[in-house]
Amino acid sequence: MKRIIFLFAIIAIVAALIVGGYLLRQTTGEPSESSSSTDLGTGQLPIPIIPNNASSTGTSTIPTLPTSGFGIADESPVFNYFAAENGIIITISPNGEIRERSGSTTKTLSSTVIKNIRETSFSFDGKKLLVMFGEVDNPQVSVFDTENYEWQPLTISPSSIDWSPTDYQIAYLTEDTDGTAILRILDTEIADPKPKTISSLGGLDLQLSWVTPNEIVISEKSSAFVKNSIWKLNKTTGNLTNVVSEKQGLLANWDKEQNLGILFFSSENRRGGQLSLINIGGKILGEFSFLTLPNKCSFSSIVKTSTSTDNPEEKVFLNCAVPKETQSFSNRILPDDYFKQLIFTDDNLYQIDIQNGNVNALSNNSGSIFDATNIQATNGRLFFINRLDQKLYSITL
Predict the structure, then answer these.
(1) How many whole angstroms separate alpha carbon 56 and alpha carbon 110?
(2) How does DSSP classify residue 340?
(3) 221-279 pLDDT tens trace
(4) Cα–Cα dist 207/223, whole Å
(5) What one-character DSSP code corresponds to residue 397?
(6) pLDDT digits over 319-370, tens only?
(7) For residues 252 and 264, is the Cβ–Cβ distance under 8 A?
(8) Shortest CA distance to 286 belongs to which of 85, 3, 36, 95?
(9) Which long-range contacts (CB under 8 A, 24 or more apart) does 133-138 make?
(10) What is the distance between the alpha carbons of residues 191 and 271, in angstroms, rounded to a whole number?
(11) Cα separations (Å) of 3 from 145, 247, 259?
(12) Is residue 170 predicted with pLDDT exceeding 50?
């Protein structure tokens, strides 16, 4: 695949497009929890509420998404979601309810209430959903099968966890009493899975992202007040290689198909920062003139067949939500202020062809204000969660 990049074109075009105002709000508190027949608090694991061979419950009809333009994909609060290429959308709410949307029909896959959800992630194909919940120092993990509606509790208590990019294995970190972080891998397809220890790592507050089948990225918790580093670990050899060293506020969002990442690090005075395009080897491929955070961007691709050649061409895009008032955003302590919800933004959405620099400004004709995060592009639409109301929105590409 021919990659990248007419970044000067990107910089010029995107910088010209970014205009507008900025929304600054205070934290509004925790979302409310709905009632359910099953309630899972700390010390309890999710259990199946639907028999193995039974259909899901709670089917209802909702308006279909518009064929063009802007629309709401889920009116209820959404903690995380998976948008499949066949148009099916699976969501999990802040209180643990799991729903599936197909066209104008939505059905509840699990109504189990899960308190204190810490983290959720979907497998590469959306067929399994991992939920980490409970106490911060002793979290619990369970995996939900979105096809069979079954919960699979795991007897692990990780500090960070992620799916394999190609199968149903998970990599996770646990911290020993001496501060050592242990990296292990667990295959959730096995009935009684046994963890395999991969490596012991020094450092606190480590986070992982399983980017390629054989490479796991390890990073330190990001803060503008601390210099952080990023490494990649070869899970076969155990070799640890530095990717980026000693940057304040270092934060990355990796794409598991393109082996590319969006990298942010803070400025020396902790205000604002720099956004760059990076590969898995740590090479900076280019720097952007606009400022946003990596969690407000995602990669996507389409395959086009050329009439002049038999070889299909894969086009790679970067989809970003960019605060309209970049100067105000640049004056904040990043990423700390954003993750602490001391600020909320009003964003414009852009899709950038990273091979030729073309920029598509996505139009929002609804007049709505949104602070977009968790962006996914699939099936001709761009999906995102609005931090202002926790609803799931989409807009045609």
Answers:
(1) 8
(2) T
(3) 999 999 999 999 999 999 999 999 999 999 999 999 888 999 999 999 999 999 999 99
(4) 13
(5) -
(6) 999 999 889 999 999 999 999 999 999 999 999 988 887 888 987 666 789 9
(7) yes
(8) 3
(9) 133/40, 133/96, 134/42, 134/43, 135/42
(10) 49
(11) 36, 26, 11
(12) yes
Burial code (b: 16+ CB inside 10 Å, e: under 16) for 321-340 equals bbbbbbeebeebbbbbbbee
DSSP string, 25-47: -----PPP----S-EE-TT----
Distance between CA atoms of 129 and 140, rounded to whole angstroms? 14
Whether 92 shows a pLDDT value over 80: the answer reads yes
At position 265, the amino acid (one-letter code) is F
SS3 282: coil
According to DSSP, the residues that pair with 310 across neighbouring strands are: none
Strands 215-220 and 297-305: unpaired
CA-wise closest residue to 58 among 108, 102, 93: 108
Distance CA 240, CA 357 (A): 34
Calpha distance 181→219 (Å, rounded): 12
CB 323 within 8 A of CB 344: no
Q: Among all chains, which residue has been given the structure tokens 């694991």?
A: 45
Instruction: Report the distance separating Cα 301 and Cα 212, nearest Å.
Output: 17
- CA–CA gap between residue 389 and residue 386 (Å, rounded): 6
107-138: burial string, b at 16+ Cβ within 10 Å, e else:
ebbbbbbbeebebbebbbebbbbbbbbbeeee
Closest by CA to 77, choosing from 29, 113, 33, is 33
Task: Please tell me the predicted confidence (pLDDT) of residue 40.
Answer: 42
Task: Please give the structure tokens belonging to residue 298.
Answer: 């995602």
Report the alpha-carbon distance of residue 168 to residue 95 in Å, rounded: 24
